[in-house]
Design goal:
The protein is mainly alpha-helical and 123 residues long. It contains four helices and no strands. It has a domain of 86 residues.
């Protein structure tokens, strides 16, 4: 049984072949890819900051650097495209918890245009 923020065996089998570090790939072996993905999922699903990553997952800076490298290489995009194309995927959704605006975005572009009554208008 997978822990709260970790991939189950079925979920892992769906994406393991899409990740770098397989036999035949150039570079280092990705034997800890599943643990790495679980580390990233912990941060993203919990909403915590990277440096709040539990010690059992290792150094947060190392995880963040690898996450950034994979992002620049398009690894995450490839995984998401693969999962979205699955005809049996019942869990694709976008809700308001994923779309956030900065608190200063509430007033609109350029802020509120307030005219002070009784004050001379400046050109």
């Amino acid at each position: 049984m997978a822990k709260r923020y970790e991939l189950s065996a079925v979920q892992w089998r769906r994406i393991c072949d899409l990740l770098p570090g397989k036999a035949g790939d150039r570079g280092r072996c990705g034997e800890d890819n599943r643990l790495f993905v679980n580390r990233v999922l912990w941060v993203l699903r919990s909403g915590a900051r990277w440096h709040d990553l539990p010690e059992r997952y290792g150094k947060w800076k190392t995880v963040h650097k690898r996450f950034t490298r994979w992002s620049k290489a398009g690894v995450w995009e490839k995984v998401f495209e693969h999962l979205i194309d699955d005809p049996d995927n019942d869990y694709v959704m976008l809700d308001s918890t994923l779309v956030r605006a900065h608190q200063q975005a509430a007033t609109g572009k350029g802020g509120a245009k307030i005219r002070l009554w009784g004050a001379p208008e400046v050109d």
